[in-house]
Structure prediction request, 387 residues.
Amino acid sequence: MEFETKAIHSGEERTSDDGINAITPPIHLTSTFLRKDIGSLLDGYAYSRLSNPTRTILEKKLADLEGGRFCLCFSSGMAAETVLIMSLVKTGDHIIASDDLYGGTKELLSMLFAESFGVKVTYVDATSTRDIEKAITKNTKLIWLETPSNPLMKLCDIKSISVISKKYRVKLIVDNTFASPFLQKPLLLGADAVVHSTTKYLNGHSDSIGGAVITSDKELYEKMNFVRKIDGAILSPFDSFLVARGVKTLAIRMRQHEENAMKIAEYLEKQKKVKRVIYPGLKSHPQYELAKKQMSGFGGMLSFELYGGLTEVRRFLSGLKIISLAVSLGGIESLIEHPSSMTHGVAQGKNIGNNDISESLLRLSVGIERVEDLIADIASGLKKIQD
Ligand SMILES: Cc1ncc(COP(=O)(O)O)c(C=O)c1O
Prediction:
């Protein structure tokens, strides 16, 4: 089956066991399940913190779409990251992470795992496979990448980094939230696990918070399943239903996000009040060639810098009527945010940020509205900035 078909049908094998034959699987809003006997279950389900049929549908679907054997879904992207890291490291271990990551991930790594649990974290420019290799020590347990990264849209060469990770027996983790499995499949390029904030493109409608980890590594899956069971950060049946429903239109949404983002990036590049535009689909992106090789499309996320500072940023934002000022991304509606004060504000303040996140940088999650309306909105924002 091709991607679009899997997105709709995977995990939803028809059964007529319940005598109802609904085309859309029901939401199993139950905390617990009837048992056959004290020693045996009826259909494999015992308690919804352990597993739930609605969540199982989503987990099968996401595993299939990423080309992995196993998937676990969590109550947020951050919960997915926490369980994944807890399953792989202990005190004294070392993590290599990209210097451009979602601010919350840096807070998790540096302010929880490093400060409270004695895990060492080194940030490197992960666009350089050589710099990653140089940072490896005998205690390194994992390499953590985002590609494209949040918010600087840096790309990491998953295949070449996976050669290094295998050589040193280090786990390679890729946060695939920005690309989605429609555009990039890190497991097929050599990653050991893929992590998602399902809050973003997978759900696609800005009405659910969730996360997922997909892997083909049985030992890692079993460890994470144990940690999730005792930690309890599961995705609820209702949210599982929402994400599984959202995923069905992922391909068609991603195509439109990308078409719109490309046109907006090209428009922004021509504007004299715009200092630089960072979008992997532009020839000016330093890793345009890698994007073409590693991804099957460039996605719907872009960042740009205005000339000036906070005053110009505020003036620009005041002119927007369609594009909303809000954190998050990957929904059908366009959202804009100011990384240095919003998503990455804490990390920047704690000196674990990135010097390239200037105060005139804005991150745009391009929605699937009519692109002419979005460009007119951006033009009205730019008009607010004085010449
Ligand atoms: C790339 C990336 N990974 C992970 C997360 C965390 O996900 P959540 O907000 O669902 O916990 C985010 C949130 O913005 C993100 O942008």
Q: What stands out?
A: The two ends are 54 Å apart (CA to CA).
